[in-house]
Amino acid sequence: MAESEEEVDVLVQRVVKDITIAFKRNPNIDEIGVIPCPEARYNRSPIVLVDNKLGVESWCVKFLLPYVHNKLLLYRQRKHWLDREALVDITCTLLLLNPDFTTAWNVRKELLQCGVLNPERDLYLGKLALTKFPKSPETWIHRRWVLQQILRQGHSRKQEQGEAEHAEMSQQLSDHLARTLHQEMKVCCDAACRYPSNYNAWSHRIWVLQHMAMGNIKVFHDELSSMRLWVSMHVSDHSGFHYRQFLLKELITELSQTQASTTITTTATTDSPQHCPNSLHHHGHSQANGELSGAEAGEEARQLSFTTVLQLFHQEMELCSDLIQSFPGHETLWSHRRHVFYLWHHWRKEHQLHCSSNGGSESVSVKDGDPGLQTVSAQSCAGRKCGESLNGQRNASEAMEVDGVSLPDPRDSKRLKRGVLLPDPPTLPSEYSFVSSILDKCCNPEQRRFALAYKKWLDTVIGQQP
Amino acid sequence: MKLYSLSVIHKGATKANLLKAAYDLSSFSFFQRSSIQEFMTFTSALIVERTSQGSRASVKEQEYLCHVYVRNDNLSAVVIADTEYPQRVCFTLLDKVLEEFSRQVDSIDWPSGSPETITYKALDIHLSKYQNPREADAMTKVQAELDETKIILHNTMESLLERGEKLDDLVAKSEHLGNQSKAFYKTARKQNSCCEIM
């Protein structure tokens, strides 16, 4: 079928039209795909729509793709004129079949800039292309460009407005941005599920947070907790864990700033769950605390963010230990452990310095030298070690209980005063004992190799530092 | 970490007979699901045919692992998972399913039964429950019960085949694979792509 050039022409034009019509008739299309089908059947359109999924029969791709590709190139070389509508349709077809064709995205950038296309429509097209090509670098790059357009638009609109309209307007804008942010997270998550260790999707997710939610502790906390299950189900996805490391680092930086300055910032531990999950610009929307005077409030806030940091580290290490024990032999988990411990190690050193330069007024004990903590962790380490050879399982659960006691109820953290036992932070001895507990009971050769490598890393990198 | 299919099969003298199967193909592209399902069924039956009585094996094929357990009474089960999913949990699941199945379905029906005639409903429930191995019952409990060294490991499907036999030929000859699935197999084979095919 469709051998002569003319026939191909007619066929392809019909297919492009069919795709356009399919989108017009059904605005809820949520996936695209190719249907394996070596030959045309009957005289039927190769475009199939089932359950909001748009499929193209494979036999027509070899006609369709070169045709739309050439047409667009001729247009770019000014050898062939296409009106705007035709351009929209042709780039759409082309990008659904080959989303890494940069020229087509560039044509769409121009169309967007002169107002023929709206940004949401391009985000939608990109989302569909990613269902078939979840890594497509050009699609992610174009997406970031579109998002920047949206941000810029919002920014200039804000400046145009008068005082009276300003409040309502900025509320609308931030709602809109919150929705966009939420949608981006969803798109990234889908792409990450479709392709393991999808670096492009995860680095896009980081970019989005950096440009649309910076300083918004609430969003970072929510991301960290919603990612928990995801990483537990994808224990060899290094990109997913890297994203977690990014979240952790940003949160700790942000919280440490709170600690240094004396502003009170709402954190997830004090936030009520009813709080609108998507509201942006939370930062600086300080919690009014009428009961406390300035200095006392500052002190309280410092203590609170300090506890939160400690809790973050504690929970991350717990998660990591748990996953390593449940799923032996995944290097990703061990390298995550390294990263978290390294982060903790540096944070602790920095804040030791910070506290003493503050005139030592801060007795919140970050130092290893805190006698209470040290003995507790040392004891539990010793306990773990000697019991391990008998029954590793029982001991692990005991250790958990010890941690459980020392971990304050998050809801109580507001009332936390000096002297209350803080969450068990990781220490060098506790890491060593973790490694030896793994070596004692595990015979998986990979797991043993990773455990030994981690031990060596502790010896050479952490142990050598003053 | 994902389980794609779970099937109960009877190993006959020459052929394997599918008794019941459950699938979770939500992570695959919509238009490929039917072909992938046919391939999983085809692969599961083939693996049972090539595995000897009373043994356990794991067969690696690209980024998938097919775990099989053929009991001494020829009742068998296959679970297809990704490489991340813990092997030990897969074999626990197989043991459990076969024990339950043999209690509920009379052994007279095994050689001639089919998914339509067999009433055993728990397969879908098991498949969805075991998607998260940590929520499925006590992952650690069975650790000691199963001797992992006795599980035979095949690094490719090809290693299950006899001399001179080719997977491509078996696919082409199969009555259970539709034309679309065969076309799908050919393209995927050519591209040697992951995520596209078993």
Give a quick summary of the entry:
The complex is a heterodimer of chains A (466) and B (198). Chain A is 67% helix and 3% strand. Chain A is mostly helical.
Q: Report the CATH C-level class of chain B.
A: Alpha Beta
- Largest sheet of chain B at a glance? 6 strands, mixed
Q: What is the average per-residue confidence, as pLDDT of chain B, rounded to a whole number?
A: 86
Structural class of chain A: mainly alpha
Rg for CA atoms of chain A: 28 Å
Number of H/I helices of chain B:
5
Domain V-SNARE coiled-coil homology (chain B): 138-198
Domain Longin (chain B): 8-131
Subcellular location (chain B): Cytoplasm, Cytosol; Cytoplasmic vesicle membrane; Golgi apparatus membrane
GO molecular function (chain B): SNAP receptor activity; transferase activity
Verbal overview:
Chain A: One of its GO terms (molecular function) is protein prenyltransferase activity. The complex is a heterodimer of chains A (about 475) and B (about 200). Chain A has 16 helices and three strands. Chain A is mostly helical and about 475 residues long. Chain A has two domains: about 200 residues, no CATH class; about 140 residues. About 20% of the residues of chain A have low confidence. Chain B is of the alpha+beta class and about 200 residues long. Chain B has a single domain, classed as Longin domain (Beta-Lactamase, 2-Layer Sandwich), CATH 3.30.450.50. In chain B, about 30% of the residues lie in helices and about 20% in strands. Chain B is built from five helices and six strands, in the order E-E-H-E-E-E-H-H-E-H-H. In chain B, strands 2-1-5-4-3-6 form a six-stranded mixed sheet, sandwiched between helices. In chain B, helix 1 packs across helix 5. The longest helix of chain B has 18 residues. Chain B is globular, with a radius of gyration of 16 Å. The chains are: A mainly alpha (about 475), B alpha+beta (about 200). The interface between A and B is medium-sized, with 28 and 23 residues.
